[in-house]
Amino acid sequence: MLVFSAGVTITTPAAAQTTESPFEDNLLRLSEILGSLHFLRNLCGEKGGRWRGEMGTLLAIENPDPERKARLVARFNRGYRAFAGNYTVCTAAAVEATGRYIKEGEQLSRETAVRYGN
Asked: Which of 76, 77, 92, 118 lies 20 to 30 A from 37 at CA?
């Protein structure tokens, strides 16, 4: 199960752990969103590693093989670097992007749980 900021839970069937899940694209996108939020929220004053922690939770629950874990982590890092290369201070655009990513992550989590949850 993955808990995203709205308290939405995604549960992964045990059988999906050894093969690519039917919602792999959703998890990759969610990983990227978490990376973006990790950078943006810290840039704009949030202290701590909440979003990195959410990524850790996703990895712990999915228990991916090393190749799959590398893909998920790479997407997290891609999301982080997408903003780290452009922002050095919190701006209105950064705050707006944060809001959009939180909404997208919540929606993606909800849709994935409804479609694939147990």
From this structure: 118
Length of the chain counted residue by residue: 118
Residue 2 pairs with which residues in a beta bridge?
A: 10
CA distances from 66 to 20, 42, 46, 78, 79 (A): 12, 28, 31, 18, 20
Rg (CA), the chain: 14
- What is the model's pTM? 0.81
- Extract the tokens encoding 116: 């694939």
Angle 65-69-70 (CA atoms, 0-180°, nearest 5)?
Answer: 120
What amino acid occupies position 86? N
Joined together, the tokens standing for residue 9 give 């839970």
